[in-house]
Amino acid sequence: MADGRADWVKGDAHWREGETAFISVAFTWRLPEARRLAVYYRAIGCTKIRIGGPGTFTQRKYLADIGAEIGGSIPDAIARHNPDATRSSYGCPVGCWFCIVPKMDGKTFTLLDNFPVRPILCDDNLSALPADWQQHVVARYIAAGVPLLDANSGFEPATFDDEVFARWKPILKGPWRFGYDETTEGASVERVFRMLTDVSPRRKQVYVMIGHEPFDACMDRIQRVIAWRGEPYAQPFIKLNALTKEPRIQHDWTPLRLKQVQRWVNRRLWRYVKFEDYDASAKTSRKAA
Fold first, then answer.
1. Coil, helix or strand at residue 150
2. How far is residue 259's CA from residue 240's CA, in Å, rounded to a whole number?
3. How far, in Å, CA of 12 to CA of 3, rounded?
4. Contact status, residue 56 vs residue 29, Cβ threshold 8 Å
């Protein structure tokens, strides 16, 4: 990549150690691929198959008939997905209904001593970590001379405060990532934007979940992020056990409208045309057409 980060693997991460094959699945809709990989590794002589990762947590039955060991943990497995990725902790105390982390890793933090310092940090909730552990992580990056190019999973608006901002500001070279998943989070998100006033819009990247609230509510959150001088990133709600990458259709949404909003937001077309004037097929505005 242009900033020096390695790319994430496309699909499941997999590797072989002796007669054992390892398959790491990030998302449930990658499980069909995991089944195909298990067949492949059996065919080339692997006598043991281990399949793990977040994607297996809610769909263990889907893999029950292939004779593999499901679950468990492999130290630093995230580096198999991206050699520049690391994490210093697991878990999140927030307990969002749409998130797999509290169910899988718990609502209390597991802190990883001597974690490898790398440019992409993927902890589940950096701002909710104990303050002394946050400072420990920052100190490890400074001592190692490794630039933090991406705090990948981001910060929680409810626990992001001036101290958190001051703590991470010296080392975070990439975007400040946080979520605006529901209308009730508006006050917390706006408070974060006030703290980040002097940060450029490109470095204020906000995940905005869409589809689980009515269209107007979701679009209002997107427009607020833009008005607060941030960059929204739209993510349609997908059930935690989905075997295909298809969002759940609720309220007044349709599959087409979800795709149109996602494209309009994530391609930053909102800079040039209002959504009501956006013609996805023409890649321009209806008024201009």
1. strand
2. 19
3. 24
4. no
Going from the C-alpha of 208 to that of each of 200, 217, 276, the distances in angstroms are: 19, 11, 19
DSSP-based three-state secondary structure for 8? coil
- Position 22 pLDDT exceeds 90: yes
What's the distance, Cα to Cα, between the start and end of the chain in Å? 36
Give the CA angle between residues 246, 266, 259 to the nearest 5°: 35
* 148: DSSP letter: B
What contacts 87, CB < 8 A, 6 or more positions away? 78, 112, 115, 121, 122, 123
Q: What amino acid occupies position 44?
A: I
d(CA 14, CA 186): 40
pTM of the model: 0.90
164-186 pLDDT tens trace: 999 999 999 999 999 999 999 99
Q: What per-residue confidence (pLDDT) applies to 3? A: 55
Separation CA 104–CA 101 (nearest Å): 5
Which residue, among 120, 127, 124, 135, has the nearest Cα to 167 in the 3D structure? 135
Structure tokens at 39: 């067949």
Q: How far apart are CA 57 and CA 28, in angstroms?
A: 8
Determine the 3-state secondary structure of 265 from DSSP.
helix
- Cα–Cα dist 125/213, whole Å: 23
Beta-sheet strands, E only, within the chain = 13-17, 20-24, 48-52, 69-70, 85-86, 89-90, 110-111, 120-121, 150-151, 176-179, 204-210, 231-236, 278-279, 284-285
